[in-house]
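Fold this sequence, please.
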Amino acid sequence: MKRFHVHVHVENLEQNIAFYSAMFNQSPARLEADYAKWMLTDPPVNFAISTRGDAPGVDHLGIQVESAEELAALKDNATKADMALLDDGETTCCYSRSDKYWVTDPQGIAWEQFHTLDSIPVFSEKKLESNQAVAQACCASAAPENIAKVQFVKSRPAPSTASGLAGSAGKACC
């Protein structure tokens, strides 16, 4: 089963937790000092908010899958659609260990497609391998040295750092 994912940056976490808990008629499934997530079943949505990132508002959209096979199928579709793709591989972000990649739609909206492998006690962890700086892009700063390392699957201009894949991969997270 696939689940739609939305992540919104908010200024006041408690106020937004109260609002969304009332709107969804349920408490968050995961609650941290800077983050809350609802795993809604009707409709099936992974809805997260955090105080991390840039300006408040919708940060990114996504599709969460339950298996490596489903993720491979989505990745194959993205490649066939001639989408620029940033493959994070196995990474940590948003209190989870996941296998993920990012694509950007024609408007510059970042889409995260991911398979959650496990829950972790911290928002993110650093990778041990020094050659995988981009694999941490989800939770790393949008430093120019990281953005410059982004490899696109098809030849297409890189999105700006203000929006789109390169910028969102640096600021956005699940």
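The mean pLDDT is 75. The first strand starts at residue 3 and ends at 9.
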